[in-house]
Amino acid sequence: MSAAKAQLHLVHGASYTQREAAIAASLARLDGNSAATDKNVVILEGLPDGQDILQATDLLHISRIAPGCFCCIGNLSLRVTLNRALRQKPANIYLGIASDAHLDKLLLTLQGPAYTNLLEINSTSVLSY
């Protein structure tokens, strides 16, 4: 029997703070039972421009990656961070990226052979600037 795939929620656009706030709101909407027992991971591209909205807990792991197009930098920092996150067997992974300039290439990576049995792209949210 194979393990359940992590649900990937992709949030892009707007400012770092707006992406983090949107992810925090989505986490708050999770079913109370699953939110209390399931591991969730947040990967945010960019650096905070104020006080962090999300705080790490035993069930919420947060990673921040320096800004830069994941496609153009070869996806290395994203793949390393994502692979580490997947070892924790999270129920949900929220990926907050600044731009959708190369979103199609990023999605190809996330849907590629390395992640096909580990991730299911659940939703994509576009925030306006």
TrEMBL record:
Annotated protein name in UniProt: GTPase
- Whose protein is this, by species? Undibacterium umbellatum
